[in-house]
Design brief:
Two copies of one chain form a homodimer. Chain A is built from five helices and two strands, in the order E-H-H-H-H-H-E. Chain A is mainly α. Chain A has one domain: 434 Repressor (Amino-terminal Domain). A two-stranded antiparallel ribbon of chain A has the order 1-2. The first copy, chain A, is globular, with a radius of gyration of 11 Å. At the A-B interface, helix 4 and strand 2 of A face helix 4 and strand 2 of B. Chain A binds a DNA duplex through helix 3.
Chain lengths: ~70, ~70
DNA sequence: TTAAAATGTAAATTATATGTTACAATTAGA
DNA sequence: TCTAATTGTAACATATAATTTACATTTTAA
């Protein structure tokens, strides 16, 4: 796999979107709090399935939440 | 993980975009031909990293290439 | 100030994305 | 029609996403 860095603004978007806690939001999306924590800390390269669920609940397109670091 | 089905139009987009072969396109993106084949056959749930690379080379947003099946 | 809630993270495990090698089936071009 | 290129896919190996359990640290609210 190509060595690129993917960034995201999931944490910011979660706060902006009704100030849900990580745990509440994780439950809503259908992943564990730990998975959400690692995604927000940008230590995971999540699957498109999770990203589409995040996108849906945050009401923001995937391309706005995730991008390739230059 | 939530039991949802993710669909994509990667194969169509690849053909439209200059009619590259699967192998040529896979090399461009930086994955193997087999991985590309499985993604196009919708048998994989690829990572956001691969999706962003696909999006870049196909010049179409991730949200246009991938969606959740209703 | 202090206790409860929220968050970060680590270790062990499970599930699965991706790679490698290989071959069969399909498609396209001569 | 024949052959080469393209594609589908299977088996096995590896890397890592995601879960589970658990605990320490930080933040929030009384």
């Amino acid at each position: 796999m190509k060595e690129i860095s993917v960034k995201n603004k999931v944490k910011l978007a979660r706060i902006e979107k009704g100030n849900l806690t990580q745990g509440e939001f994780a439950k809503l999306v259908g992943v564990t709090r730990q998975t959400m924590s690692l995604i927000e800390a940008q230590k995971y390269n999540p699957t498109i399935k999770v990203c589409l669920l995040l996108s849906k609940h945050l009401e923001r397109p995937v391309d706005e939440l995730f991008w390739v670091e230059e």
